[in-house]
Design brief:
The protein has 152 residues and is α+β, with helices and mostly antiparallel strands. Helix content is 43%, strand content 18%. The longest helix is centred in the middle third of the chain and has 18 residues. Strand 2 and strand 3 form a beta hairpin.
Length: 152
């Protein structure tokens, strides 16, 4: 028996940050992602976001790497969104993502943060949110590439 603790706050955005996740139908996308997580034995604590990006708080099983999970998640949802008439503006996901590891004392705070995304983004732009999160986690930002990585 393996004992692991792999909790992540995952963030990724739509291609060119287009606001293409219609809020009227976002719960359909969230249910689809919940089903995908369930099939991969990933515990989804919370999902939320805005029309241009998503946040997930997950616990990954020991046999599934963060990179593999995000690749499968983005590939599957990309196909689902493009074939769903409720998301006609969706062109795809950006190339990158953020996978921020969390400890046991972080879970409730991150879940609350994800729940508050719509209100949060009334006062802060996505790019500024990412800068703030990266600074909080001690991730160095290369200003020469940062905006092109998170605007693409």
């Amino acid at each position: 028996m393996s004992y692991t603790y792999s909790y992540y706050h995952i963030i990724f955005h739509t291609l060119h940050n287009n606001p293409s996740i219609d809020e009227k139908h976002e719960n359909d996308l969230y249910r689809y992602i919940w089903g995908l997580c369930k099939n991969k034995n990933v515990f989804l604590h919370r999902i939320g976001g805005t029309p241009n990006h998503l946040h997930l708080m997950v616990n990954l099983p020991s046999a599934l790497s963060l990179a593999d999970f995000v690749r499968e998640l983005k590939t599957s949802t990309n196909h689902w969104l493009k074939s769903n008439p409720n998301f006609p503006l969706f062109d795809g996901w950006s190339i990158g993502y953020a996978g921020l590891s969390c400890g046991p004392n972080d879970i409730e705070r991150v879940v609350a943060y994800i729940k508050n995304q719509k209100e949060h983004h009334k006062t802060i732009a996505f790019i500024d949110e990412m800068k703030s999160l990266f600074e909080e986690y001690g991730i160095e930002i290369d200003e020469e590439y940062f905006e092109s990585d998170w605007i693409q």
